[in-house]
Design brief:
There is one protein chain. This protein is an alpha/beta fold and about 375 residues long. About 55% of the residues lie in helices and about 10% in strands.
Length: about 375
Amino acid sequence: MSSITYSLKGGQATSNNYYEKAERLSNKVILDVFKNEKKYLQDFMEYIGKNKVEELRTKEEYAVELLFIGVILMEYSEYAYGFNPKWSGVFKGLNSLRNKEKIKEKVDAIKGRAILKALLKKKKVKKLDLDLFKKIISWLECTGDFKEEVFRLNIWMEFLSKKDPNYVEKFLSFALKEGEYLLKEGQYYLGEYISGVKDYLSTYELMHRNKEDIIYCGKGEIQYIFNMVCAEILNKVYKEKFLRCKEKLVFAPACMKQTLKQCPSLKEKFGYVCKRCSKECNINKLTTLGKNLDFKVYVIPHETNLLNAKREDNGKIGIIGIACVLNLISGGWKALRLGFIPQCVILEEYGCSNHWLKESKMTAINEERLSYIVKG
């Protein structure tokens, strides 16, 4: 494998086989959730409708959220149980200060030390209950890495708070079992594409100790699998709506730009627009493809660039978000919250030096996959 944790090519010439396997697995997983947790999905959707929490979504979307609950129970229960809530105010302040670019580097240094001291202490979980679920949400919020996830989980927390303890325990137990099922099946179907994760996690703490990104970079195999599988599920859910959109945009990460010289791209409403400075640049190639398939490409250096996109203007805009594996679902949830109709394509592998590599390299996507999404 050429990448540090994952590669969609898996040693082959293209990533076509990956997409075929991910689609098969997504179909299998969603059927398993519907079979085993049908009652919980129905209860939750009735709660949403009765309390007018939001415009009711599809059962597939709520199944994805339920799967995520299983994932976080597997990954973070012991960290959350060992977290002292007195630190919550500290992390709330640090996360807010990170939005100020001039001091962000200094804030990150402080936050990195605080994470090691307060968020990475484990304590054995005694039982699955509402208190544990609340602790996990609080812990996730403190990390600053799960903003969209926390938004969705708070709705589930309100739902569960109306139920008796026995219901909550059974619900969390089922969610945990689904997470374990997802991991087992994911390792079987997609293991060759994430074969670097275990080796990376065995040594990554040496590189990320006292750094702000230690939790983000320390995500386990289950979170790679969750994003891969659920990206396929959500793509299917919104496929028809996306194809009906008259305007289509592609939001590409800055790591797809050429790295040999300064990028002359110009900022517009949604992001930066390519000025065609290099034939070798993958953003340039993407822009050319867009002219043929009638979509416009914007480079998004950071997710905060989308915060200025007004929701009421977005309902007829279909977007394809290009992202690395660990950002897929959070990016999709953010796009939906902003009113866009989303699809996604995964970067073939990591390329940025912010978190993963010593030196940045230009990343790429499967252009056949992008064309397939746009054409339907």
